[in-house]
Design goal:
Blueprint: E1 2-5, E2 8-15, E3 19-24, H1 35-41, E4 45-50, H2 67-80, E5 86-91, H3 93-104, E6 109-115, H4 124-136, H5 141-150, H6 155-160, H7 162-173, H8 177-189, H9 194-199, E7 203-209, H10 217-226, E8 230-234, H11 240-243, H12 245-258
Parallel strand pairs: 3-4, 3-5, 5-6, 6-7, 7-8
Antiparallel strand pairs: 1-2, 2-4
Helix pairs in contact: 2-3, 4-8
Amino acid sequence: MILDYKGINIFYTDTGKGEVIVLLHGFLEDHTMWHDLVVKISNNNRVVCIDLLGHGKTGVLGYIHTMEEMATVVKTVLNHLRLRKYTIIGHSMGGYVALAFAKLFPNNIKGVCLLNSTYEADDSERKQIRTRANKMVQTNFESMVRMSFTNLFSAKSKLEHQEAFEEALQIALKTSLQGYMAAQEGMKRREDFSTSFAQTSYKKAILLGKKDTVINVKNTIKFAKNHNIDTHIFSEGHMSYIENKTDFIKEIVHFIEKT
């Protein structure tokens, strides 16, 4: 389905009936990453998937898509559907958007689950990486997307899940140059959500990949323990919905049942 927002199309899907679950994809992904999960949970829940700014079938607004702007787009869709209370699950960048949403609209949140994502802001090294990527991608788009996407998988996973990897890569390659750059700038500028995430009363969970090279797994486990946040560690890397699909679906279902 399509919704107009500031003159651009926002694409979303709305499946099932029951408690509302909002699924937010990560960088270089779109709503299709959630397909297997939607099939599993839409029998008992109303599941809304949204293509974030500059991704999938959703347009771009400029050269910086902040997490707050993306969260406002999500809220616009949910308001259009007349939904008031929901649980949000976000993968990677989608987790950043979920945290921005929860801070902006706390009264609407029943729970937040971070999948291969973090509450921390980028450190100086990560910001520099994003800046370099945005310079390089302007002249080497396809090679940059391939490299950044491939690095999210372990060597083992790329072989074991070759078909799913290739399908996800093709979706990544469909991201526009402007969408790529705007998301990188937005992620680079995002605030640290450590305090707001720790202090909120809604149900929380963090699902991590043991071999994830993007997330500081050790520090995240310590943070979660200190703040009584449920965690689960998958055996592989950053792309748990592919690398640990069965376990990923099981843990998401468990989280939804608890909220």
